[in-house]
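User: I'll paste a sequence; please echo it back and then give the predicted structure.

Assistant: Echoing your sequence first, then the prediction.
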Amino acid sequence: MRIQILGSAAAEAVPALWCECECCEYARKHGGKDIRRRCSYWVDDDTLVDFGPDANWQSVEFGIDLTRIKRVIFTHSHEDHLDPVELSWRAQYFSRVTKMIKLFGSRRVHERMLSAPLLNGFTFDRYNEVAEKLHFEPVELTPGSETRDGDLEIIAVPAVHDPKEDCLNYILRRGGRSILIANDTGWWSEAGWDFVSRYRVDAAIIEATFALSEGNLDYDHGHLGAHAAIRFRDELVRRGTLPAGAKVVVNHFSHNGNPLHHKMEAYFAGSGIEVGYDGKVIEI
């Protein structure tokens, strides 16, 4: 499997649009790995995990042929991970589309698809009309579900992020290899940890939204700080889900945590954890 990080930021991106903080000022001046788009991933040539407001920029920057995408897997419905407007351009006139794709996500993800202005007037009982209009097949996922689409297995792990909806982390399996993608979550519930303990993965991407924020290094409620991400990795190893020494990458950083790349690398030095950035490729 080949996974490319298309975005390594949390909701506001880095630099945040209007922000005057030290991190954003540095990113504007120096660019490079400190420019962080909203979090999403490209798996092999045919799968996206999340499709947010930077999707067009990401597809051009990283050479993604969207006509080859077969599925988009959504972690949750928040604006930085799901942009119904960008997906609505699949409608005729705006784009010439003949191929169907599958959209995987919770009920709330599918409900939010109706918020695009182009879909104004559609209610959820007409969702199949929306799907036909935009050439997609909706697939509802629930926490703990296991779904196979072609040769890709999608295991929905219950995240702890927003109590108003089922937020999902994922184990993706293909060709005998597997990866855990765990962003937009705090410390899992005991039931969540027990669920994940049934599986083995070859690599993991773990969020560290609060990054190096003073007083939040160990924060683990709804998001993780940098040290909490290390504890999260250690718990995966302790439970036998992740082999000791396996590739682990932290990702999904808020500018409020001052996640300048060189500072993040210095913090994680010696931990066996790599720091994500836009464009980073993970081969497993």
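The longest helix spans residues 226-238. Residues 2-276 form a domain with the Metallo-beta-lactamase; Chain A fold (CATH 3.60.15.10).
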